[in-house]
Amino acid sequence: MKIGFIGLGIMGESMSENIVKKHDDTVYVFDFVKEKRELLASKGAVACESSLEVAKKADVIISMVPKSEHSMAVYQEVKEAMDSSKICIDMSTIEPSVSVEISKMIKAAGAQFADAPVVKSKPAAIAGKLGIYVGCEEALFEKIQPILSYMGENIIRMGENGKGLVMKICHNALVSQIQNGVNETLTLAGTYGIGVDLFTTAISYGGGQNFYLDSKAAPIRDEDYTTAFSVENMYKDVNICMGMAKEQGIEMPGEAAAKGVYDKAMEAGYGKEDFCATIKAVRG
């Protein structure tokens, strides 16, 4: 079974590299940035010149691109190569409604489709320990699970097409609110002379302990905002969440507060930095 991977960004690069290392057949890759294609080719992949070339050569086509419009563009391009022998897996984090639209388009062309967004960031992508939320039919899930296991260790089917993305957006919305709580309380503690390390240790003794603080305390302390997951990507997810809430008639004041912080962070020019840089917007 030949696998194709489209989108070799911060996450896609490591995800596709894990497939190359662990899969026993050809892995085709494409990204608009030539250097990214060449890097994966140096690790054993076969570089292609377009998404369509990948789709024509591969049995399973995986995509990992930034936004809804990018996913739609990829699948509009590759649909001419679709038939009953093809499986498509979009691992991008996009609007669930757009993913459902893409799934219908690909199924109409004869292929199978799953949404499979990931949680955790670059270190987990490198280690092949991502969490993966899947939206597709049960039979397809069983078929693609071994492939997904090249990239992640916690893989769960959430339901039909689009449901993996619903869960991903809910997850990231929760993270944004936990993050905002950390940002605010850490800033408050700091005004009283309590440093990041002492704060983090003290929090670990009680019910406030959380993965976000545990993983980001050192970067925040050192003011190291090297990007593992960017402010602009989380900003996108927060806004998708607010749009979903509006569609469902649900008020989310906590998420609205987090969105306000992300709005400030984007206005301040932190978009390309790691998402823990939002603490600068709170402190500012």
Summarize this entry quickly.
With 284 residues, the chain is α/β, with parallel strands linked by helices.
Structure description:
The structure is a single chain. The chain has a six-stranded parallel sheet, sandwiched between helices. Strands 7-8-9 form a three-stranded mixed sheet. It is built from 13 helices and nine strands. It has 284 residues and is of the alpha/beta class. The chain is 56% helix and 13% strand.
Helical stretch tally: 13
Main structural class: alpha/beta
Poorly predicted regions: none
- Give the helix proportion (percent range): 55-70%
Shape: globular
Number of strands: 9
Major sheet: 6 strands, parallel
Ends apart, CA distance between termini = 52 Å
Strand content: 5-15%
Side-by-side strand order of the widest sheet: 3-2-1-4-5-6
Q: What is the N-to-C order of secondary-structure elements (H for helix, E for strand)?
A: EHEHEHEHEHEEHEHEHHHHHH
Mean pLDDT: 98
Radius of gyration: 20 Å
Keywords:
284 residues; 6-stranded parallel sheet
Could you outline the blueprint of secondary structure elements for this entry?
Layout (H helix, E strand, L loop, with lengths): L2 E4 L3 H13 L4 E4 L3 H9 L3 E2 L3 H7 L2 E4 L4 H11 L8 E4 L5 H13 L3 E4 L2 E2 L2 H6 L2 E6 L2 H11 L3 E8 L3 H29 L4 H9 L6 H12 L8 H18 L4 H15 L10 H6 L1
Parallel strand pairs: 1-2, 1-4, 2-3, 4-5, 5-6, 8-9
Antiparallel strand pairs: 7-8
